[in-house]
Input
Amino acid sequence: MTIMEMLGQSAILTVLGIGVVFSFLIIMIICMDALHAVLHALKLDVEKKETTQAQPVAAASNNAVIAAIAAALHDKQ
Output
């Protein structure tokens, strides 16, 4: 097998490999679009809002965190 035959064969394999990858990507994009359409039709793409509201953090806990950070910085020096 000559160098030119090997180069020709490698070019064919390269083109086939790239073709397989791009065809898979196209199929994957089509499937994702179809899945999006199905989820949208079934109204499953809407996020539900949380019914409970977050409780405000007490000021005492903020002061405790600040004191802990200050103590850690003081010990570091």
User: Anything to note?
Assistant: The chain has a mean pLDDT of 87. The longest helix spans residues 3-41. The two ends are 73 Å apart (CA to CA). Residues 52 and 58 are 18 Å apart (CA to CA).
